[in-house]
């Protein structure tokens, strides 16, 4: 169960409205690596965590913090939109600066939300549950968490460079810091899982005996770049090797013969592997 | 530019059809961590890679391999569907085993694809571009790659347990092996990026001076679990600490006063912070 | 900012696992009227509420409760999946009851979530932000809230009839009760908005003078049912009337002449309203 | 079965083209509360209505009207795009007004539709069936209808303020009027359902005896606003009360122990409630 | 503007309910090639048609018919669901036939629609506007129409084989017939466009002089199949030829150097084409 | 299995960056008829093709080429974005040309992709698998291919007119040529299928005897245009006729009586066809 205080985790006060920037910030709310994603990703991971204790508690601490980040960004967007042009007359359309602002705005922030944030990314695509992962395997999921926090801090840094509003930059400095913490904690938690003997670096920690033993250490050279074998991933001290002239292991990619009840194209003169021998002669009722 | 051979990277021959399993395999084709995802993720990363040489070449080698994995799975699905019930009479519906098979099948594999694979996940949701990431920052992206290969191997392992068809297991053993290789190579490539001095563990490698220096090393205790500070992520030898009684840093989350042209609810008796003082007395034209 | 306790708002303990029902419950998690929807709808409404005080506080109370409802349902789903068939051998597939269970299960709950809930509806479609509304107009939004709670209670009642597990029914009885409360409170809040003079029943409370005065009180008879005028919505004491033989008010629905740079089909012999006069004679370069 | 006349329900003639506004109007065509939504919502409600007579007839009258509203808006959009810049040379890009127009246009209206409307919202997101509701319960659905018409009139009013084209405003005045009628009729139909004894205000009209009797009248104070109990929804004459210090009723939100075949993280030293006792000692095959 | 009669274009009465088949029929309602698609595709094509007369009139005749096809199918689905199991007790779950039916049903038809059709495909994915095309070029669009009617008839034929209910087959026989007519009419309309001199077979009928003259008649041999040149598409009497050993025409696919403000991975030792020369030596502030 | 060369099929070098145009080109990458669509459509058609030989080989040749077209466009987009404004200061926002560029850019190309292409259309909507078709019936699919290539060439031609950059136009001239070839080859392959006796013009080539013989040759006049019978599709020498006064063939579109367990609105006074006789008198427990 959750409780809420109206106080923001960190202040979210722009110095002045900026409707064009308000659209860009939507990426941090409802983008694939925005705050809605980490909120929902951590909540589902925590609820689905099958080990009680330090891992689950860390997940739930972080999940709960992230709901508050959506709140900070939604508040910031509403304030950036204060006084944004809601009335557009022909005259305004001829003022190039105003017209440019209108062109760069998110139309739904005005028309749909009445001057507030949307649960969308910066292009207006609604956030969706397909962005998150909660697999029940903590190592697999912590890797996804590190990846999400890395993309999140990267996007925050890019957005930090796209404004010079001191209030916005102040909030983003906080967000950058939190993304730093969260990257560190998930990296440390991955080490902890391994050090606790709960997982090993390759996920899942199983079926190594059963997996193909010939092809579980080769990198296949399938593009013509000449440097794929120049990295530290192959060579002495590694357990991977570079396969310079790989050849297909399987036979041709054929599909089974057609099922008449499904009306795939077929021929009575097809042989067993589906090759048509001579011209089809079958008689059919003509559609007339 | 690409070239294709009809030979499969690895054989994909089930011993017998299994229409219910054919639906489950769709997760590895068009799911969030299926082969369409890694194909497109690596292709876009490679095309957008701004450093020539070993990293880009490794990405393109792997991307090219993954297209062939979609091919293997699509071929396997078509073969698993061979002879799948395309005609359903009342009699069949009364045979419980047949009825169960019909109930567990992917209806679109028959109705839409004529007995073949769909570009969908196991629930029939079409694959979409929102699943992939290609940010231009190699460390951020390689982390996403490790995460994707971990989820992919995990799902493959689960599916491996859901069949006892020797032909299917044979192919999945190959897939497990490739997922092992790819996890290893991306982990190694992350080390290489750091060792080459191109990136550091926190992404992006920038703005550390500017980020909030008070809150870039604290884990906030916001859920009531008592073990969030028991992990190796805090304490001696770490640069994170656990904040047991965090308090909000910001003021109330208020939205600006309403814009009349947008018809948000407002009151002429609102004070400056939006609190309504006494009952509104405004007269309005009634809708009649 | 939010805080979390690990205790559930209400107990969520099924008496026994039921993998088929676990799929159905997904509708209450990630369906259009599931708990993710009311959570996000109320959160965005609260953050975007431009009047401080009782309305905003009620919204945030309710929003915070709803996050805990997602938690209850996700926990219930994980427990209903306990021991759900994760391994499927040929033998199992021939046991009709087991096969039916396998057919009726949500394949992603096993393959993707490892035996837990997904952020999806009962058909596996991911929840998305397009389901919610937060317009800034409280009356418009409270109506959407009443509608959402009504659909939610209706779906809960249907699901209540689809199980006889005492533990599941116990939790659903709580959910039914909360949906009753929330319907009542939003209905009362609508009355309060009107009684406070902040809104009037027709939303938005504006532009009545400007709207078309001829067509703002007529119901158009456009289907051939004969009872559309038998309801209390027309007749004495109402301000609506039934228009039995409505005629179109506008001219033909024509599109402008084609723009050559956009290659719409056009003819040099078209007249001003786009009618082709005689056969086109224009000479074109043939594609060869 | 349907029939069509080419005459528009109401004239849709702008005085001059306005490509930027044509993008905004897409919200009324393919947005969540646009005309495609009410068209499909009412059609499915009517087809699924299980009582013949006045309710069904009213639904089908309105559904049929709404198809014509999509037509009016699509026609208006095509006309607003007449002569919209289809050729963009370097010179044009340096004219700020032209550049702003180009920036504010919907690129698909030109590239995909050749100067016409798209079945999308103002951000280019395609309309989808997840927007509509047709539950079979008329009261639940009429509430959704009132909500949809309220959001629709609100968006129309906002768009009315964003243009000064007399022809556009003329059409929008008609649309405002129809939204007024439709709000009134659905509100009246709700009253009628109750007065006819078919439904009661809480939906569905069932299971009140079975729902939790302790928690079906309390509003839980879970956010720290102090005014949640100041509204008319609690206090004398209401059947709701405000619970100032609510406590969770359930136990901890735990997930069942992991299923080995699904490779969730687990430890052989876990106790019955999933707490890990001491360091895991299990031996595993190392991935090499 | 549209008008509606409650009479169906063709009878839609199943002989008996069949809840499993009701799910399959959803493909014809809300699938990519279902009736919602052709309805909306033809409506938008008609509204956006820039030539008055026979083409537009044919489009609008057909569009109007298709709305009625959605109606027939939605009615059929509701009837197929009559008495479908809405209550599921433990006992029922142990009856394999009943369990199989429950497993094969569309859960939303019961939980969300109360025993009616959904605006979804057979997998529960909502219909969306991305399925349709209305480009303003009649030949391009009529081709899409022929393609849609072909896929539609194919799916109808497959579904025809999956039932033996005389009432369902009766309706599908009508649908098959209409799909035959519509294929024929769009094929004829394509001939008419060409014969009227309005379009030529290659769409759009323009830019042939400007397109690359070397590569507008060659089929590139990029897969290793040996029969790509055995078809009538190349050889005497055709204007295409088969290029057996095609080579790339462009240079390497490189991306520009990174923009420091966007934090792509880069190295100060990169040369002009992005190759890193030696180990990067740049000093960075460490994240601590 | 696939192999890759880093050389592009055709050069993709713009003369100068153009961030606004880079957004428009996204339509050719991730739009419904962009290169991702034809890539995936042809790959799935080829993998699912059940006849070996010339048809399958042609499909795989073309599929393999299309992957390289995505590559060309992604490379072009990255180059068009070179130096695109990544930092936006207040000053820049007041330069109208710069502001217009910022307004017209795709925000995700900078924030998410770091100056590269996205797997999205020009409005930012992610590509999805619902765009493609691979039915197993070659004629149905080749028609979809002709349609896709026609829409693709049409969009390419429109975009060709929206730039005057010689490098961009050079690449588009190649794309126009390839779209010409592909339209021709699919048209020829359709002829070949018919000439080989594998298919007939109406798809699928089956059930003509069973389809409704009365309604498989009539065009229904359901819109009031007067020219629907003026085309060559009806009259002498055709097998279609125009039905001027079509009447519905079916009875009323009624839904079955409500199922009490699903809580649809119903009345105990309903007669057998669902008409309510007199006022309902049922007593219900009031929700209190």
Automatic annotation (TrEMBL), chains A, B, C, D, E, F:
Similarity field: Belongs to the manganese catalase family.
Superkingdom of origin organism: Bacteria
Species of provenance: Amycolatopsis suaedae
CDD domains named among the record's database cross-references: Mn_catalase (cd01051)
Binding annotation for Mn(2+) 1: 35, 69, 149, 182
Cofactor: Mn(2+); Ca(2+)
Note describing how the cofactor binds: Binds 2 manganese ions per subunit. Binds 1 Ca(2+) ion per subunit.
Classification via InterPro entries: Ferritin-like, Ferritin-like_SF, Mn_catalase, Mn_catalase_dom
Keyword Manganese: yes
Keyword Manganese: yes
Protein name (Swiss-Prot/TrEMBL): Catalase
A Pfam family assignment: Mn_catalase
Binding annotation for Mn(2+) 2: 66
Gene Ontology MF terms in the entry: metal ion binding
Keywords carried by this UniProt record: Calcium, Manganese, Metal-binding
Positions with a binding annotation for Ca(2+): 57, 61, 223, 225
């Amino acid at each position: 169960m959750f409780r809420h205080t109206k106080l923001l985790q960190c202040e979210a006060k722009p110095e002045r409205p900026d409707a064009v920037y308000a659209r860009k910030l939507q990426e941090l709310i409802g983008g694939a690596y925005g705050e809605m994603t980490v909120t929902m990703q951590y909540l589902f991971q925590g609820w689905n965590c099958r080990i009680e204790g330090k891992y689950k508690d860390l997940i739930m601490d972080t999940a709960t913090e992230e709901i508050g980040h959506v709140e900070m960004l939604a508040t910031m967007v509403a304030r950036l939109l204060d006084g944004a042009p809601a009335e557009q007359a022909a005259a305004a359309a001829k003022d190039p600066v105003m017209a440019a602002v209108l062109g760069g705005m998110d139309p739904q922030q005005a028309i749909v939300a009445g001057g507030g944030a949307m649960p969308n990314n910066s292009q207006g695509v609604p956030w969706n549950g397909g962005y998150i992962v909660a697999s029940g395997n903590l190592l697999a999921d912590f890797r996804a968490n590190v990846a999400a926090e890395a993309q999140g801090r990267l996007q925050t840094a890019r957005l930090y460079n796209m404004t010079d509003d001191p209030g916005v930059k102040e909030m983003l400095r906080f967000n950058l810091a939190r993304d730093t913490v969260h990257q560190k904690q998930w990296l440390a938690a991955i080490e902890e899982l391994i050090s606790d003997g709960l997982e090993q670096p390759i996920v899942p920690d199983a079926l190594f005996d059963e997996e193909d033993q010939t092809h579980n250490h080769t990198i296949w050279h399938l593009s013509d770049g000449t440097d794929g074998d120049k990295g530290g991933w192959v060579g002495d001290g590694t357990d991977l090797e570079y396969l310079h002239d790989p050849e297909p292991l399987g036979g041709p990619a054929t599909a089974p013969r057609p099922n008449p009840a499904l009306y795939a194209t077929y021929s009575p003169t097809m042989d067993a592997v589906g090759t048509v021998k001579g011209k089809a002669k079958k008689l059919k009722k003509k559609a007339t």
